[in-house]
Design brief:
heterotrimer, A mainly alpha (277), B mainly alpha (316), C alpha+beta (462), B: mainly alpha, two-stranded antiparallel sheet, 14 helices, globular, disordered C terminus, C: alpha+beta, D-Maltodextrin-Binding Protein, domain 2, five-stranded mixed sheet, three-stranded antiparallel sheet
Chain lengths: 277, 316, 462
Amino acid sequence: MASAMPWLRPGAVYALVALLLLWTVAPVAWIATMSVQPEINYVSVPPRLRVEQTSLRWYAATLAEPEFVAALRTSTIVATATMLLCVTLGALTAYPLARLNVPHRNLYLTLSVTARMVPAMILIIPMFLILRGLRLLDSHLGLIIVYTAFLLPYVIWMLKNFFEQVPYALEAAARMDGCSRLGALVRVIIPVTAPGVVATAVFAFIGAWNEFLFGLILSTRVAVPVTVKLSSLVSTTFHSDTSLVAAAGMLALLPPVLLVFVLNRFIVRGLVEGMKY
Amino acid sequence: MRTTLTERTEPRPSLSQRLDRMGEARFGLLLLIPTALVLLVFLALPLAYAAAMSLFRIELTVSPAWRWAGPGNYISLLGERAVRESLARTLAFAALTVGSSVSLALGAALLLNEPFRGRGFARVLVLLPWAVAPVVAGVLWRYLFHSNYGLVNALLYQAGLIPAYRVWFDSAPVAILIAALATAWKTLPFLALIILARLQSIPEALYRAARMDGAGAVARFRHVTLPQLRGILIFAVVMQTIVALQSFDLIFTLTRGGPGQGTVLLSYLVFINAFERLSLGTAAAMAALLTLLIVLLGGLTPLLIARRPRRERQDG
Amino acid sequence: MSDQRSQERLSRRSFLRLAGAGAIGAVALAACGQAPPAAAPGGAAPAADATAGAAAPASASQPFAGRELTLFSAQHHAAHVKDVYVPLFTERTGAKVNWIEVGGGDVEAKYAVFVASEDASADVLIGWEAINAKYGPTLFEDITTSVKPELVAGLTPASKRAFTFLDKQYGMPLDTNMAIFMWNSDLYKAAGLDPAVPPQSWAEFVDHSKKLSGDGKYATLFTLGDANSGFVTFISIYNSTGGTLLSPDLRTLTVDDQYGLMAMEAIHDIFVVSKVADPAGVTVASSIEQGKIFRAGNMGHYFAFPNHFVLAETPDQSQIVGKARTGIIPGIALRSGSVNGLEGYAINRFSGNKELGMAFLEHIVSPEVQKLVATGWGRPPSVQAIFGDADVVAKAPQFAAVQEQTKYPSPRYGSPFYTDLAAVFVEQTLAVIDGTASPQEALTKIQADGQKVIDDYWAKAS
């Protein structure tokens, strides 16, 4: 790839990149340092930068709390299942919208994306009533279905985009070899768009993991996501150990970050190569 | 289990046979049914309920009853000072967010396009903020700018730039600026990558042609790179506007709307009306207004998607 | 041709199988994540009193054996209510308690949904003065006639008032937490002040503060980080002027008078003129941050809640162990005034388990639990008699200050329009602090805007 800014000296490039990475990582790094020190170290007037008396005991304390671990488990289960359900339903929907001659298909997509422009919180009360009627309150399944419903419009949009990138020629060749349309989907389109599909799956996972308000209202004990648990730690008014909150915050962002780093090649390729504008 | 065409005359065709004979359109619609069901029950139904709420007066501090208001909620909204102020704040926040996000993302994309060692690693590290939940991001940035144990204060004080620690969230404009920065931080990965995508697909031929015409490096940037990025930058602006207008989780943990009402954006106002004032009809009407705003400013995006397939079709 | 057709058929079937497997896999994952339901969460319509599989028959000593109670509380109650008082309740009554908690700041969001959906899943709900008036009429059970009169008579007046709205009682208080005055004796000594004697009046307080400030440190900090905390700050100062903000029928606001002016000018003084109050206070919304700065030895004195004293004496929470002293708040016109922050519990009016709920309310005002509140938690008890208990007096010296403090006004002015009214107060107070409004201008605005909030509410309610 040619350089778009050849006037930039290599030194300047490295300096700017370092600045960019610093900007990206600094907030998380700061919380990381807060999570391994006693609070007295950094609650000082005026503030001083120092790292001493480090210990992992706040992580141990957070993980020793069964409710926090349960929250981590809940978020993992819900996010993973939402991801699977979203990609499955999404692919099922994106394929006809991309390739088949379904009447009014652009209308469906436009409608669903427009529906997502409504501020989600106004939908909380009706959602509570619906889930209560279905006896799905405070359950993993309830959260999974709700999150899926909310992520589907975007997932379908992204997958449709990726599916459309596949040249007709590839599909036509497969069809000539005796493959059915759906066979072409499974054997040609999805493998070719794998990076994009993975990127979409990760997007769904993160979207489900990050959800807060619905998790707060729709769950009470059994299926409390970690974002809600974290907020309760932060908004506690009479007792809170900031290092503990920092440690909890780090633990809460670990799984999606790990996922992103492990699958980064797919994500970058998917977003960079899969979306043509 | 295998049936063949010669068994077509059987009185009841099997599922497989019926699937085969279905036309393209019908099969396509069949595939759409599961998703349609999920979206109808869990998206369309709540939407209808919320729309209905906006036409009633529902004051939960008085009673759970719904009293007909017609357009009353909407009319009173337009007269409320709090709404006008919040609207102004929201637009300011959106402008700041979009401005900072897109320019930072453009810069990042240009940088990540340059050849340098460790570029792959840099592209991965840049993804970090994307994986952080907005709730967590709000906490991170609140601690960053904390008056007693914030990194920003620590750094500035060590560098001698400030005589004493500074309180950052006490002024509404500064608080909004910090919120905009936090949003820019969180959305940079996605925006930067899609801009990078476009950058990388700019054909070499265009640069060569420009070089042959005697254009210098800066001129090539101005006349080849930037115009080619125009489409994607517009897309990024629209997407980021939608994100900014819908932003709630971050403000909730960053400032809780403070100082005073200083960071109460329209989405937060909806929250206040629904969950603190317990005035559901007003909240629903406000949500409708906000949706209108989002659709107006962001509605360009669906049009952008709709146009693309037709272009692709022509390319075969 | 037939081969192609059959291949197509297989492809469509196998494709659909794949898709089905994917969906089922997701659902299966969800099912295996579901913990075996202990009690029925999110119950719909209020059912009759649950007689779920009575393990042991109810007896006199265990009147509610085999029954279940669902308790909705806040995270900061876990260490005491959940870990100590609840097991005691189970021991006494035989009833099992399901504990639900959310962060203190998230309680209102849940309550709004409970009211809107008439939810019966929680039997007992946490309450405090700021929200009792808001949710009393629509969510909490009116227990004025069903509660035992002798229990009510034994409550401290302040705590009873906090759970009463327009002459109806909506719950039982757990404590009589109200702000007192706390100072750092070492810092007093260093500033040339008598380490054993607190300021006896507001004027002295400001005077002391000037000596305690300097070098980037401020003598005190008042919280103004959100509507609630800012309003509390205003009231904590206003309540020693002798004025009354709201009429008993909650229809009239009176702030633009000599009392309001005294309070607002006091605030103006400490923030703008004498500059002894930390400007960072406008970003602090929780008293806990206040306490932390004090316990790090960086604040001379402040208006503190009594359990902060316990924290100040705990070695790993404080750097000033043994240095904290308690007394009553120095008043402006009256000798003293305070603001209450007490909490308690109420019965959910949609619950099908109200008898058991009432048993829990009675439990928290029982002598046993009240002593634990005083000695274990460090909060002043809601039952008057406990203050005189020998054990309590021995273990909780800070209560001498509290008992004295309860003699002076400390209303929190809870109301259904609390949030909006508080927002009006905070907006103008912040304007005074950053110099864009004079105390009188702020008061005029508060009077106008505040009264409008009240009028709007009563218009809605009719």
